[in-house]
Design a protein that fits this description.
By secondary structure, this protein is α+β, with helices and mostly antiparallel strands. The chain contains 23 helices and 30 strands. Helix 16 runs parallel beside helix 17. The termini are far apart.
C-alpha cells in the first residue's frame, strides 16, 4: 500500500507541474478527475499495475497527453538507462500520446543521430517542434500522420498536440543537455579513475574539513586502508606521517594546504606508518582542489614510496662523508690541479698547510703554496703533463726536508692530460729514522748482552735460585728472540724501504711492519723495566677514583674486535652496586690486570668464547676471566705467576711473549692487597679470578707506597706563559719536542750539550721549565743539572732519558731534577708531567 500511495502522490505532483507549465487552468473537481483518469490510464484500477488501459472518456486525448508527459518524466528519472535508450523510448511514448496512434510516426533528430518509431514512414500531414540544446545545434522533433482520413473522419492535428510537442521538445532538450553533461562527467570521472588507478603514486583526496573523499589503489596499498573504509575518515587517521629522524608526528600536508592555499611539499625524512605496521619513506606534495570560482573545495595528496631511494641516498651520503673524512684525515698533501697549475681541490695538509685566509681554489699552486711568482724550479708537473705518465720519487727540498712526491695524470676520453694529482708526504723523520734504526742495532744488542750478563750474575748469588737460574736462562733466550725478532723486522724493512722502485702501498706496508716491530720491542723493554721496579721496591701505588663499570666496558669494547677476528665471542657480565661504582684504586694497575688476563684468554683460545665478569660489593671488587682455550695443567698453576716463566702449549701464539705478564700483574695484585686464583684443566679452558679490596681514601696498601691523586688532563693553554729550554743532542728528539710545544709556549730555547745548557740557563734566569737529556756530549745531564741548581732553584728540571731503571731515576733526583720521564716520550704523559711538576714546585 505504501508503494501505491507514493506513486499516487508522485502522479499528483507531476500533473500539477504539467498543468502549471502549460498554463492550463482547471477547477479542483476537474483536477481530481484528470488525476484519477491519468492514474487509471497509466496503472489501471491499481497503482501497482504498470499496464496502460484504454479510456472512452471525452477527455481521453488530454489524459493521453498528460500521461505521455508523466511517463517521460519517469523515464528521465531512470538513471539506469543510457541517453540513447531514453530517446528511443521517448519517440514511442510520443506516438502513443497522439489521437491517431495507429497512423502516427515520430522522428527525433539530434546531432546527426535519428530515433524513429517502428516501421517509420513520413506522411502528408506533419507536425514539428524545435529541441533547444545548450552546446549543440538545435534538434528537431517531427510527428507524421500517414493518412488524411481515419474511420471515415478527416484527420488533422490538434492545437493541444502542438503544445504537447513543444513541451516535449523543451523537456527533451533539457534532459539531453543534463544527461549528456552527466555522462560526460561520468566518463571523465571514469577516465580520471583509470588514470589514478594506473599511475604509480598514491593519491588521496579530501574535503575542506580534512576528511577523505577518495583514494587510488597505490594509496590503499601503502596505507593498508581500503577506499570504502577510508572515505569519511580524518586524513590524520589514514595518512599517518612522522619525522624519520626524530620519530615525532609530522604536520599533515592537508593542514598546510588549507592554511596556505598553495602547493606544499612534504619535508625530507618523512615516514608513512601503514595500518598494517609497515613503514615507508615517502615524498612529493599536496595541492588544493579548486572550483570554477577559484575556491578551495578540497585537497589532493600525491605521494610515493621512496624507501629504496632514501636508503640509497643515505648510503651515498655515508660513503661521500666517509671519503671526505678519510681524505681530510690524511696527513699528507693531496691536491688536484688543471694543466695551467690552478688548484681545483686541496686538503690543505702537509706542504699545503697554509693560513685559512690564503686557502683559495683556482689560484696558481706555486703562488698559493710556496709564495713563488713563477713555476717552482723543482716542479715535476710539466713533465707529467707532457708525458702523460706518473712520477714518483723522493725529493730533498731547498730547506733540507725530504718528501715522497707522487704526481699522477688524469686523462680525458681522448687520452689527453686535463688534470693531475699531487700527493706529497713529508718523510724527513723517516729518512732520519732509518739512519737511527741502523744505529740502534748495536745499542739494543749491547742491552741484550748486558741483560744476559746480569742474569748470569744473579743466578750465582743464591742456592735457592737454581730453578730460577734455569728459568732466567730460558728468559734470556726468550729475550734474545723477543728483541732480535722485532729488530729483524726494523732493520730488514728499513733497508728495503730505501728501494726507489717500491710502490706507495709497499712503503706503507713496510712502515707499518717497522712500527709494529718497534712497539713490540718497546713492550718487551717496558716489561723488563717494570719487573726491575717491582724487584727493587720502586713500583708505587697511585690511587685515584675509578669508575669500574666504565673502565671494564671500555676495555671489553676494545678487545671485542680482536676476539671477533679469531672467531671468538667476548661476553661481559656486570654486577656493580651503584653505591660502590667509584672505588679508590690504581687505575693503571687495574687496567693492566684486566688487559693481561683478557689478552691471554684470547691468545690461548682457538674456538669458543671468552667471558669477562665484574662485580663490586661494599668490601671487594671481583674480576673473573673465563675461556674455552687450551687450558693449563695442575702442575703449572703456581709457576706461571713466577717471573720469566712460560708454559709451552700447543697453541702457536703461546710461543711469543716474555713470560713476564702474569708475574707483573701478580705483583700488582699483591700491592693492591688482593688475590688471584686459577681454575684450569688441559683442553677444558681456564678461569682466572681476581679479588681486590674496596678501600677508603688514605687506606695504606701492603705492596708499595701510596700516592693518592686526582687525574688531571693538562690543557696546552697552561704553557702559554712558560719559557722552556730543551736540552737535547739528538736532532730528531729535539725536533719532536719542538713540534709538541711549538706555538703553545711564551718562548722555546735549545741547547745541544750540557755546557751550552748551563750558559743558556744563566742568560735566561726567568726560565720556567728545563727538559734535560741525561746522555749529552761535553757535560752530561747530571752535571749540568747540579751546576744550574747552584744559581737557579726555581726552574722545574725534568730529566729525559732512554735509561729507565730505578737507579737512573734516583740519580737524576739526587742531581736536582724534579721529575723523570723515560724515552720514547709520549705527548700526553709529558704534558701532564710538566703540569704536575710545575704545580708541585710552585707550592714549595
Amino acid at each position: 500500500m505504501k508503494g501505491s500511495q507514493n506513486k499516487a502522490s508522485g502522479l499528483q505532483t507531476a500533473i500539477k507541474d504539467i498543468l502549471r507549465q502549460h498554463h492550463l487552468p482547471v477547477s479542483p473537481q476537474l483536477y481530481n478527475q484528470i488525476t484519477l483518469a491519468v492514474q487509471k490510464h497509466c496503472y489501471g484500477d491499481h497503482p501497482e499495475n504498470s499496464k496502460p488501459v484504454i479510456l472512452e472518456d471525452p477527455m481521453d486525448e488530454r489524459i493521453k497527453e498528460l500521461g505521455c508527459l508523466y511517463d517521460l518524466s519517469l523515464l528521465y528519472k531512470n538513471k539506469k538507462l543510457l541517453l540513447t535508450e531514453v530517446l528511443q523510448q521517448s519517440v514511442q511514448l510520443i506516438q502513443s500520446a497522439f489521437q491517431y496512434a495507429d497512423i502516427t510516426h515520430v522522428r527525433l533528430a539530434i546531432n546527426d543521430t535519428t530515433w524513429v518509431t517502428p516501421c517509420f514512414q513520413e506522411g502528408e500531414l506533419a507536425l514539428g517542434a524545435i529541441i533547444p540544446l545548450k552546446d549543440s545545434p538545435a534538434g528537431k522533433l517531427e510527428v507524421f500522420y500517414t493518412q488524411t482520413e481515419y474511420d471515415g473522419r478527416e484527420v488533422s492535428f490538434l492545437k493541444k498536440e502542438q503544445a504537447l510537442l513543444d513541451a516535449v521538445g523543451i523537456s527533451l532538450g533539457q534532459y539531453y543537455d543534463l544527461k549528456q553533461s552527466t555522462e560526460q562527467t561520468l566518463q571523465a570521472q571514469k577516465r580520471m579513475e583509470a588514470i589514478l588507478n594506473s599511475i604509480g603514486d598514491g593519491v588521496i583526496a579530501t574535503d575542506t574539513t580534512g576528511r577523505i573523499t577518495g583514494m587510488n589503489p597505490i594509496a590503499e596499498e601503502l596505507t593498508a586502508w581500503k577506499e570504502n573504509q577510508a572515505i569519511g575518515q580524518p586524513i590524520d587517521q589514514v595518512f599517518r606521517i612522522v619525522n624519520a629522524v626524530t620519530g615525532k608526528i609530522a604536520e599533515n600536508p592537508v593542514s598546510k594546504v588549507l592554511k596556505t592555499g598553495g602547493v606544499v611539499g612534504l619535508a625530507n625524512h618523512t615516514k608513512l606508518l601503514g595500518r598494517d605496521g609497515k613503514e615507508y619513506q615517502i615524498s612529493d606534495s599536496g595541492a588544493p582542489i579548486m572550483d570554477d570560482n577559484k575556491s578551495i573545495t578540497g585537497v589532493v595528496i600525491v605521494f610515493r614510496d621512496v624507501t629504496n631511494e632514501y636508503h640509497q641516498t643515505e648510503e651515498i651520503k655515508r660513503i661521500k662523508d666517509l671519503l671526505d673524512s678519510t681524505i681530510r684525515a690524511i696527513p699528507d698533501m693531496l691536491s688536484i690541479h688543471d694543466t695551467d697549475m690552478n688548484i681545483l681541490y686541496s686538503n690543505w695538509k702537509g706542504l699545503a698547510a697554509i693560513a685559512p685566509k690564503k686557502r683559495k681554489l683556482h689560484t696558481k699552486c706555486y703562488k698559493t703554496y710556496r709564495g713563488f711568482s713563477e713555476i717552482c724550479p723543482d716542479c715535476h708537473a710539466i713533465k707529467v703533463i707532457e708525458s702523460k705518465k706518473a712520477v714518483q720519487k723522493e725529493v730533498k727540498l731547498y730547506d733540507g726536508s725530504w718528501v715522497d712526491l707522487r704526481i699522477i695524470p688524469i686523462l680525458d676520453n681522448k687520452g689527453e692530460c686535463h688534470m693531475y694529482v699531487e700527493w706529497v708526504r713529508d718523510i724527513t723523520q723517516k729518512v732520519h729514522a732509518e739512519n737511527e734504526l741502523i744505529a740502534a742495532k748495536n745499542k739494543y744488542q749491547t742491552l741484550a748482552d748486558q741483560l744476559r750478563e746480569r742474569n748470569i750474575d744473579l743466578l750465582k748469588t743464591h742456592d735457592k735460585a737454581r730453578e730460577s737460574d734455569r728459568l732466567k736462562t730460558a728468559f734470556l733466550a726468550n729475550m734474545s728472540h723477543e728483541i732480535r725478532t722485532p729488530m729483524n723486522g726494523i732493520l730488514g724493512f728499513s733497508e728495503l724501504i730505501g728501494d726507489e722502485e717500491l710502490t706507495l702501498d709497499e712503503r706503507d706496508e713496510y712502515n707499518a711492519i717497522i712500527r709494529k716491530s718497534a712497539r713490540r720491542l718497546m713492550e718487551t723493554v717496558d716489561n723488563i723495566i717494570n719487573i726491575a721496579k717491582i724487584e727493587s721496591g720502586q713500583m708505587d701505588v697511585s690511587l685515584t677514583r675509578v669508575d669500574v663499570k666504565q673502565l671494564v666496558e671500555d676495555l671489553c669494547a676494545f678487545f671485542r674486535q680482536e676476539a671477533q677476528a679469531k672467531g671468538l665471542n667476548l661476553s661481559l657480565s656486570l654486577e656493580v652496586n651503584p653505591a660502590y661504582a667509584n672505588i679508590l684504586t690504581d687505575r693503571e694497575k687495574l687496567s693492566s690486570i684486566i688487559t693481561n688476563l683478557v689478552t691471554n684468554a684470547i691468545k690461548y683460545t682457538d674456538h669458543g668464547e671468552v667471558a669477562l665478569s665484574c662485580s663490586v660489593t661494599g668490601t671487594h671488587l671481583i674480576i673473573q676471566v673465563t675461556d674455552t682455550g687450551v687450558g693449563i695443567s695442575q702442575e703449572h698453576h703456581q709457576s706461571i705467576f713466577k717471573a720469566f716463566s712460560r708454559v709451552d702449549l700447543t697453541n702457536k701464539e703461546a710461543k711469543d711473549g716474555t713470560g713476564l705478564g702474569l708475574s707483573i700483574i701478580k705483583s700488582y695484585i699483591d700491592q693492591l692487597g688482593g688475590t688471584i686464583n686459577l681454575d684450569s684443566r688441559i683442553g677444558e679452558g681456564s678461569t682466572f679470578t681476581v679479588s681486590l679490596p674496596v678501600r677508603k681514601s688514605g687506606t695504606p696498601m701492603p705492596g708499595g707506597r701510596v700516592q693518592e691523586k686526582k687525574q688531571q688532563q693538562a690543557p696546552l693553554s697552561i704553557f702559554k706563559e712558560f719559557k722552556i729550554l730543551i736540552v737535547e743532542d739528538e736532532d730528531s728528539a729535539s725536533q719532536y719536542l719542538e713540534r709538541l710545544l711549538r706555538g703553545h709556549t711564551k718562548a722555546l730555547l735549545f741547547a745541544g750539550n750540557g755546557m751550552e745548557a748551563v750558559d743558556v740557563a744563566r742568560s735566561n734566569m726567568d726560565i720556567d721549565i728545563i727538559l734535560m737529556d741525561i746522555r749529552l756530549p761535553i757535560m752530561n745531564g747530571y752535571e749540568a743539572t747540579k751546576t744550574i741548581r747552584q744559581f737557579n732553584q726555581s726552574a722545574c728540571i725534568i730529566a729525559q732519558s732512554a735509561y729507565a731503571f730505578p737507579e737512573n731515576m734516583q740519580k737524576a733526583r739526587d742531581a736536582g731534577c724534579d721529575a723523570y720521564i723515560a724515552k720514547p716520550i709520549q705527548k700526553d704523559k709529558l704534558m701532564n708531567l710538566i703540569n704536575k711538576t710545575f704545580q708541585r714546585r710552585s707550592k714549595v
